[in-house]
Write a structure and sequence with these properties.
Blueprint lengths: L4 E5 L3 H13 L3 E5 L9 H4 L3 E5 L7 H11 L5 E5 L4 H10 L3 E4 L4 H24 L9 E3 L2 E4 L4 E3 L4 E3 L2 H12 L5 E2 H9 L4 H17 L6 E6 L3 E6 L1
Parallel strand pairs: 1-2, 1-3, 3-4, 4-5
Antiparallel strand pairs: 6-7, 7-8, 8-9, 10-12, 11-12
Helix pairs in contact: 4-8, 6-8
Amino acid sequence: MEKVKVLYVEDEPNLGQIVYDSLLLKGFDIVWETDGAQVMSKFHDFAPDICVLDIMLPNVDGYQLCEHIRSKFPNLPIIFLTAKTETHDLVKGFEAGGTDYIRKPFSIEELVIRIENQLKIHGSNQNANTSNESKNELDEIKLGTYTYFPKRYELITPSKTINLSNREGELLKKLTEMGSKVVERKDILMQVWGDDSFFNSRNLDVYIKKLRNYFGEDENIEIQTLRGRGYLFLVK
């Protein structure tokens, strides 16, 4: 079985060595980089399945690095490791494109579980996309002046094309497949994120904000929040 490839970015040498050695022993193929400015060059030869990023890095911090990675690889899972504990730091990480967030100090067991969970979520979504090719899934969905291509996570706006991340695409599919019915918040968290934890709930808030921004060119499109229940995707 092919090993999972992890691109690990951490400038603290003692922690970095511990994590690097531990993941190697657990069967991962891992590349460890200490300088944020050097990370993108690793993608040409290594092609990671997942990235694990510290936030406080020399030259290019984790937030900037995540945004750059996300722009090039929209479906790649990215886990932040950080000593930052404030909620706004967590939200900033998700807004940059992170898909999970682990606070330091952490155990190697927790990191491995988080990596496996991220790969399961993204892998199952990709498998679902493949299996749906022969089913009755629409090739395109008209949403006001927008066109959404759910099979390739592409949103055509009146002025540009947006390549959605895996999770943005899955969330938009979930919202639009219900028509004018309420989409329960818990259902979204369980089906798109895999659980309804507090951190994933905050992550969902960030992604809803992103989708609202994407649809900002059409005033007749609205994603309504129904507090305590979920969301309505409306095209007036």
